[in-house]
């Protein structure tokens, strides 16, 4: 974890021009409801044609499915950005991990003093 005095090597995730706040926007319950409704409508739309419902009903179901796909897609993008924001605030090691994570290696590399003499770093091998 980085200290408050040291600038974070990872920029915060932004949403609408400000840092992403977990308390704003749709939650996981909203997403689950959208997915459940989407699954029901995806099954019901072709069945409405098979059951010979009026064409207007099938058409409305089709447009509702398309609109719900758009909304559900935007919700999942928001939730993925929320997860990314949460993970960037503080790096966590996976529970079963025996090796260092990429983030830990990046943090370690950014805190090491730079070699200013122009030569290779002390642990770098020279390739011929």
What does this molecule look like?
The protein is mainly alpha-helical and 128 residues long. It has a domain at 27-84. Helix content is 53%, strand content 3%. The chain has three helices and two strands, in the order ββααα. Strands 1-2 form a two-stranded antiparallel sheet. Strand 1 and strand 2 (18-19) form a beta hairpin. Helix 1 packs antiparallel against helix 2. It is elongated and about 70 Å long. The two termini are 38 Å apart.
Descriptive keywords:
128 residues; mainly alpha; two-stranded antiparallel ribbon; 3% strand
Structural classification: mainly alpha
Question: Percentage of helical residues?
Answer: 40-55%
Query: What's the helix count?
Result: 3
Principal-axis shape equals elongated
Task: Describe the strand arrangement of the main beta sheet, using strand numbers.
Answer: 1-2
| Strands, total number | 2
- Average pLDDT, rounded to a whole number, is 75
Question: Could you give the order of the helices and strands?
Answer: EEHHH
Tell me about the largest β-sheet: 2 strands, antiparallel
**Estimated radius of gyration:** 25 Å
Low-confidence stretches: none
End-to-end separation: 38 Å
Strand content: under 5%
Quick structural summary:
The protein has 128 residues and is mainly alpha-helical.
């Amino acid at each position: 974890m980085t200290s408050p005095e040291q600038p974070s090597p990872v920029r915060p995730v932004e949403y609408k021009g400000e840092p992403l706040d977990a308390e704003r926007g749709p939650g996981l319950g909203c997403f689950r409801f959208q997915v459940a409704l989407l699954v029901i409508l995806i099954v019901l739309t072709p069945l409405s044609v098979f059951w010979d419902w009026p064409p207007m009903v099938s058409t409305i179901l089709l447009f509702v499915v398309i609109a719900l796909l758009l909304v559900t897609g935007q919700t999942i993008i928001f939730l993925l950005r929320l997860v990314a924001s949460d993970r960037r605030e503080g790096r966590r090691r996976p529970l079963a991990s025996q090796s260092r994570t990429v983030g830990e290696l990046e943090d370690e590399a950014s805190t090491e003093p730079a070699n200013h003499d122009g030569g290779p770093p002390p642990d770098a091998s020279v390739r011929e």
